[in-house]
Amino acid sequence: MSDRGRLDLVLVQPGSRMEVYQRLGSTLTAIEPPVWAGLMATFARARGYSVEIVDAEADDLAPAEAAGRIADLAPRLAVVVVFGHQPSASTQTMPAAGGICAALRQRAPGIPTLLVGGHVSALAERTLRDEACDFVCQGEGPHTIVGLLEALSSGGKGYDQVPGLWYREGEALRSTPPAPLLDNLDRDLPQMAWDLLPVPKYRAHNWHCFGALDRRQPYASIYTSLGCPFKCTFCCINSPFGKPGYRYRGAGSVIEEIDLLVSKYGVRNIKILDEMFVLNYQHVESVCDRIIERGHDLNIWAYARVDTVKERILDRLKRAGINWLALGIESGSQHVRDGAQKTFGRADIAATVRAIQAAGIHVIGNYIFGLPDDDHDTMQATLDLACELNCEFANFYSAMAYPGSRLYDMAIEEGWPLPATWSGYSQHSVDTLPLPTKFVSAAEVLRFRDRAFEIYFNRPEYLQMVGRKFGPETAAHVREMASHRLERKHA
Questions:
Q1: Among 107, 154, 276, 356, which is least packed, fewest CB within 10 Å?
Q2: Is residue 3 part of a domain?
Q3: Would you state the pLDDT for residue 154?
């Protein structure tokens, strides 16, 4: 329970947009709300603790500036949150997170620090050994944070009773059994603590607002479920949860949060950040029906899978304001898709994309170059498929062995070269270093990925489609976007 007169907890979202995305970070990328920081704030407040959030990303704070804000607030505990805005975005925030811990230790060494998130959960012992932090959480976080606050309030006794905690005992590193997963999301994580966040500063992705590029703010991200039941080799989504799984919020809880965002903050652009929103149709229909009943005019995007989208759900999604669905298509090669645990066929991909578009919903095709079975021909097949489908937007990724993924375990087992820095796990940073394949070097994968981006977005067929659907201003915007050239150390 809170001590009167002193702030209990500061949750910190590291700021690393420009380092991670280079020049793209200034105008093209989203400025995402720190969802996990907001959820943990809700959890701690419900248990009587006083909380503030420092969003270094939205406020554009360097590590030393963020540390200064924390020091001024003087909490009993500072928690640096290393959850990304998607699973793969956790590791790339580690340089900023580590920098905040180091700066805070120098500025206010009496404030204990805890690191929590997907990356640190996957590499808990290494994180505690390498970073200037006092504690590391292995797990999703809320129970560990509250347990640690209780231990600190008793003078630092009882760390061995805090679930999911790594800590130092002299020179030795100790750990405790994992915390239980939250089993009632409506009770424990009903919504983010939006009142602690600078909501007007959050900005949607450029493509999310094609046709209305001057209306990217305000913007919000919400979740309606946690986890994922699938086991894609390249994904680290379940690292903090310990196993594949899927937990839902009730539709009533979801619509209450959307009502708040619309009425209090004027939000129209929303990301549903569930790793797989279009999966359980009873859940999806329940959420969509609540939105439709309210009559909110929303512009939403969400994730789906080729093999989970059925035509009967599409009209309901569209009427609820879901204007974009992101599909993990991954590869144009059946063999490569099979190796990544994506076993649907090429005909299934094309049929799903066309059905979604026929319902008036735009498609973001996600593609990966450099999966373990890729060679030059299969990567070209992936680019050919992307051009054939001609989705309204496409993301091109290089295969990366993110800590917590099966690919990372394979890379360690096989001795495959990994990035020397955590920023090297970013898709867009200067020192990006993807995995090599059995047939293609890391440099070749990276060069192919960057060339694929240029080819796709400069095609006349694509630009004509964008102009037809979204107008000439959006087509001109895409031309400007495609003119950016990323600096690459390893290409």
A1: 154
A2: no
A3: 86
Q: Is residue 308 part of a domain?
A: yes
Give me the pLDDT at residue 187, please.
93
pLDDT < 50 positions in the chain: none
Residues 245 and 356 in one domain: yes
Structural domain harbouring 448 = 204-482
Structural domain includes residue 183: no
Q: What CATH number has the domain bearing residue 223?
A: 3.80.30.20
Does residue 233 share a domain with residue 142? Answer: no
In SS3 terms, the chain reads as CCCCCCCCEEEEECCCHHHHHCCHHHHCCCECCCHHHHHHHHHHHHCCCCEEEEECCCCCCCHHHHHHHHHHHCCCEEEEECCCCCHHHCHHHHHHHHHHHHHHHHHCCCCCEEEECHHHHHCHHHHHHHCCCCEEECCCCHHHHHHHHHHHHCCCCCHHHCCCEEEEECCEEEECCCCCCCCCHHHHCCCCCHHHCCHHHCECCCHHHCCCCCCCCCEEEECCEECCCCCCCCCCCCCCCCCCCCEECCHHHHHHHHHHHHHHHCCCEEEECCCCCECCHHHHHHHHHHHHHHCCCCEEEEEECCCCCCHHHHHHHHHCCEEEEEEEEECCCHHHHHHCCCCCCHHHHHHHHHHHHHCCCEEEEEEEECCCCCCHHHHHHHHHHHHHHCCCEEEEEECCCCCCCHHHHHHHHHCCCCCCCHHHHCCCCCCCCCCCCCCCCHHHHHHHHHHHHHHHHHCHHHHHHHHHHHCHHHHHHHHHHHCCCCCCCCC
Which residue is it, tokens 């797989």? 276
Q: Same domain for 226 and 124?
A: no
Q: What pLDDT sits at residue 64?
A: 95
Provide the whole-model pTM.
0.93
Question: In the prediction, which pLDDT does 407 show?
Answer: 85
Could you say which of 175, 194, 226 is where a domain stops?
175
What is the structure's pLDDT at 483?
92
Whether residue 208 sits in one domain with residue 171: no
Q: For residues 342 and 477, state if they share a domain.
A: yes
| Whether 242 and 337 share a structural domain | yes
* pLDDT attached to residue 23: 57
> Which pLDDT value is given to residue 5?
75
| Domain assignment present for 191 | no
Summarize pLDDT for 209-239 with one digit per residue, the tens.
999 999 999 999 999 998 777 777 777 666 7
Question: How many CB atoms within 10 Å of residue 405?
Answer: 23
